[in-house]
Amino acid sequence: MLATVQEERARRIRFHFSVSVAKLIWPVRLVGTRVVRSAVFHKSLVKGAPEKPRERMPFISKDWRSPGDSWVKTDEGWEKLKVLECVKRKRCISECSSTSDTENDTENGDNEVVPPHCHITLKCTREIAGFNGLGEAVRRLDFRSSVRDGRRFNYVCALLRLLVSGKGITSLPGGAQRLLLQMLEEVATYVSDSQQNINVLRGLVQQLRALLNQENQKCWGKPLGSQSLWAEHVQTIQRIQDIASQIEIKEPGPNIRPKLHDLPEECVREIILRITDYKDLEASASAWSLMAALISEQRVWRELSHYHFTKQQIDVVLEKMCLQDTKERHRNWQAIYHALRKMYGVREELQYAEILAFCRLCRCLFWPSAGHPCIVDQCPDFRQRVQEAGNSNSNETQPVPPAKFLQYFSL
């Protein structure tokens, strides 16, 4: 009996000693830029020990914000070198395309035209540590220049509205905060120059004013973070408010022809048929009696219903309203549209003239009007290999609303 107890005690001592030795000399091997501990040696050294889950080592890099990237200090703060080179190349391309001289075209003919795009990491693995930066994505997609594009203006403003009204700009990194306010100042300048979308600017200014009052009440009247950075933000917000308060709508001069009131009824009807928001239709009806008469036509609401909703959805609402057997000219399409809107809602991607798109093949965000360097163009056999793997999808691109765009980032 005593021999059995001594043998058990010796076995336990050997076990604890082997575990302590294994922890000291547990080998480490490098895989790319990651550090992975080998558990094979540990298992062979300690027999009979319970298997532990593999530990995840921290990412080892010169800069924890981005693996192995070079950072450059600019007037606007620190920025990645590759992002600055990308933005500079796009700026040079836009300047070359705006000039019409043949000499400049021949001199700059060797420049590679790279449209604005940004690759997105959807899933992190042990081999790939993915991180999506909001500031880098906004720079790569050229949001600041997109403010002056009439097709992209509403999309950019909707994104800014979500960023300002959500957790506030103080929850973003310092570079993203500065870039966001620069975009807001660009919106104010564009609205002041074009005298269009003034209501959008007023809504953004009102949100900024509420944000400023909210942040000033935190921490005994002072917001968290850098005081110098916040003082710079306050100056930028004040400039935006000054620009918005100085906007005056100027009526076109008498020599400018034709005006809206001079257009024939057919042209005004075609303008109305291209409006996709019912709120804009109601506002136009209250502005001019001719527009009110044209908007009351059933054709306007019928085409608006077919634009936003499918035939199956329309049939469900018609059956619910007991209008299935009624002739089309006797139907109240305005009431049908509002019933469809309340039942199914309006798809957000149809509210913008241009919306960001996501390529499923190369995991890339881009503007559809500009395109992007897809992997299919570089490797024509890639699509066939994807189909052979069983991942064939007819929709290679999908629209990205502003709320979906922000989900790609850790905000």
Q: How would you explain this protein's 3D organization?
A:
- The chain is of the alpha+beta class and 411 residues long.
- Among the domains are: 133-246; 277-350, no CATH class.
- The chain is built from 19 helices and 8 strands.
- A 4-stranded antiparallel β-sheet has the order 5-7-6-8. The chain has a two-stranded antiparallel ribbon with strand order 1-2. A two-stranded antiparallel ribbon has the order 3-4.
- The longest helix has 23 residues, at 2-24.
In short:
With 411 residues, the protein is of the alpha+beta class.
Q: Judging from the principal axes of the Cα atoms, what is the shape?
A: extended
Portion in strands: 5-15%
Overall average pLDDT: 76
Q: What's the gyration radius in Å?
A: 30 Å
The unreliable regions are 23-64, 91-110
Q: Which secondary-structure class do the elements indicate?
A: alpha+beta
Distance between the termini: 65 Å
The biggest sheet amounts to: 4 strands, antiparallel
How many strands appear in the DSSP assignment? 8
Which labels suit this protein?
single chain; 411 residues; alpha+beta; four-stranded antiparallel β-sheet; two-stranded antiparallel ribbon; 19 helices; extended; FBX25/32; F-box-like_dom_sf; F-box domain-containing protein; nucleus; ubl conjugation pathway
Strands, helices and their partners?
Elements: H1 2-24, E1 28-31, E2 34-37, H2 40-45, E3 71-74, E4 77-80, H3 81-98, H4 102-107, E5 117-119, H5 134-140, H6 143-146, H7 153-165, H8 174-194, H9 198-216, H10 227-245, H11 265-273, H12 278-287, H13 289-295, H14 298-308, H15 311-320, H16 333-344, E6 357-359, E7 364-366, H17 375-378, H18 382-388, E8 397-399, H19 402-406
Antiparallel strand pairs: 1-2, 3-4, 5-7, 6-7, 6-8
Helix pairs in contact: 7-8, 7-9, 8-10, 9-10, 11-13, 12-13, 14-16, 15-16
GO biological process, one term: protein ubiquitination
Main location: nucleus
Subcellular location: Nucleus
